[in-house]
Design goal:
With about 500 residues, the protein is mainly β. It has five helices and 23 strands.
Length: about 500
């Protein structure tokens, strides 16, 4: 089951989808245009420009992003894909002292136990058929103390390739193996806050208190909170300890869960719950409300480390291709494979015409698209400067496409589209096609006298590393699945 979440939690519904026809071979023509007149309308014409495609690796996504009210998703676990290789995810995060001033665990109070909670987001990426079968899917995790500070989250960015040293000699927990089915609650039967689906790990008290006690003692004397607390207790790392856990054996599926750091109450936020009792009482009272040290997105730093291995997998040859135009292209959420696209022949557009639209069409290969739940929900293009275009942008430097302005509005994003659609060709072939509309960028290129527009295309930045697609490249053997760039225009007279 696929849950669609976008960065900024935006649900953007396109009010129209502009699909344009093209001149030339009719077997490649997309029909059912819903907005603009088709090519047989008086004064309306179209031209198809050539497209060069490659696959490259992109790890520029910031995995420490925190925007108020938006879930901080973290992919933690291991994942195996026979085409795309392996992926391993770990989370690093700070915890806050909350409203506690001082150490609440001094005599006569005695700590009984400490539980680390990492709530499930409800999303598990990959083949989840095992969740409802007799063959469960397991992941094994362990918690460690971070030996270096994470810094101020307001000014410090972390990427998927970043890491921090951890105390391997004194782990905060023993390895914990869970069945991923325990992280789901599809029927809503688990309604109490304290039963929120989550990874729960019993912590080793000596290892935890070695680092937490000095930090709690600082609270009563510090004049520089919360920084002094974070300098004393750097944070927690949760990582998979069995890197082979997701490699399928007979009857076993591979899947990677995504967790969430921030929530609405102590039981659906990442953090530590410490239970204690008054040791001076002859009969210790039963623990009720624990002391809570949770992830607070307003002050706590975090990041998601994602490591991929492509060696000996088919995708590796695409990432290292030296061909001038590849026949197959692939894309994953960052960090991962992304698309490099160059549109050629802009000068062949007749001068003096009015552009109705200019649309890039990326067509998925059906033999690789067996599970639509694994497709990226949306594609996002950015411009890449060439030696002569745009003016003032250096060669290879990223820039915002003209169609994305104003960046403060969602209207341009809606028009640019980026979603995939079922489209029908003139001979009734149905294909899945991602469409991206950039007429203003093409008009800017025409005005600048440029014959090309260079773009990079990525997936969303919510579930880092998840989702995948395989599409036809510029030299794919069947022209039906080659990418197309169709310009539809009107003549003034």
């Amino acid at each position: 089951m696929k849950h669609h979440f976008q960065l900024f939690s935006l649900v953007i519904i396109a009010s129209f989808v502009a699909i344009f026809t093209q001149t030339g071979c009719k077997e490649n023509t997309l029909i059912k245009s819903k907005v603009l007149p088709s090519n047989n309308t008086v004064g309306i014409s179209s031209i198809q420009l050539s497209v060069t495609t490659h696959t490259y690796y992109d790890d520029t996504a910031i995995t420490s992003t925190d925007i108020g009210g938006i879930p901080c998703y973290q992919g933690v676990g291991t994942f195996y894909d026979p085409f795309f290789g392996t992926m391993t995810g770990s989370t690093y995060f700070q915890i806050s002292y909350g409203g506690t001033i001082g150490n609440p665990f001094t005599s006569p109070y005695v700590i009984d136990s400490a539980i680390l909670v990492l709530p499930s987001s409800g999303f598990i990426y990959g083949d989840t058929t095992g969740l409802s079968s007799t063959t469960p899917i397991y992941q094994t995790y362990q918690a460690f103390y971070i030996l270096d500070t994470l810094g101020n989250p307001a000014i410090t960015n972390y990427y998927s390739y970043n890491s921090k040293p951890i105390d391997l000699t004194n782990p905060l927990s023993d390895p914990v193996t869970i069945n991923l089915a325990q992280l789901t609650d599809s029927f809503g039967t688990n309604l109490e806050d304290y039963n929120t689906p989550a990874l729960r790990m019993k912590l080793r008290l000596p290892a935890l208190l070695k680092y937490l006690t000095p930090a709690l003692n600082i609270l009563s004397t510090s004049t520089n909170l919360p920084q002094d607390f974070f300098d004393a207790f750097h944070g927690i790392c949760i990582m998979p300890t069995n890197t082979q856990a997701s490699v399928p054996s007979t009857g076993q599926s591979s899947a990677m869960p995504y967790f969430v750091l921030n929530g609405t109450n102590p039981y659906n936020e990442a953090g530590i719950l410490i239970y204690s009792h008054d040791g001076s009482q002859p009969t210790p009272a039963i623990d009720t409300m624990p002391a809570i040290y949770n992830f607070d997105p307003t002050v706590c730093a975090h990041f998601n480390n994602i490591t991929r291995s492509y060696k000996n997998f088919p995708v590796n040859s695409l990432l290292h291709s030296t061909l001038p135009n590849d026949s197959i292209i692939v894309l994953q959420n960052q960090p991962g494979a992304s698309l490099d696209v160059i549109i050629h022949g802009i000068k062949s557009i007749p001068p003096g015409v009015v552009l109705n639209n200019a649309q890039l069409q990326i067509n998925l290969l059906p033999q690789y698209t067996t599970d639509t739940a694994e497709l990226p929900e949306r594609l996002y293009p950015i411009g890449i400067g060439t030696p002569s275009y745009p003016t003032g942008v250096g060669n290879g430097v990223a820039y915002t496409l003209a169609d994305r302005y104003p960046t403060t509005s969602l209207t341009p994003v809606t028009y640019m589209d980026g979603f995939y659609h079922f489209l029908t060709t003139a001979n009734n072939n149905a294909i899945r096609t991602y469409t991206i509309n950039i007429p203003r960028e093409i008009m800017a290129a025409i005005a600048a006298g440029s014959d090309t527009v260079h773009m990079h295309i990525n997936g969303t930045e919510d579930f880092y590393g998840a989702f995948k697609m395989v599409a036809g490249g510029g030299t794919y053997s069947n022209p039906l699945y080659q990418p197309k760039f169709v310009v539809t225009y009107s003549k003034l007279n």
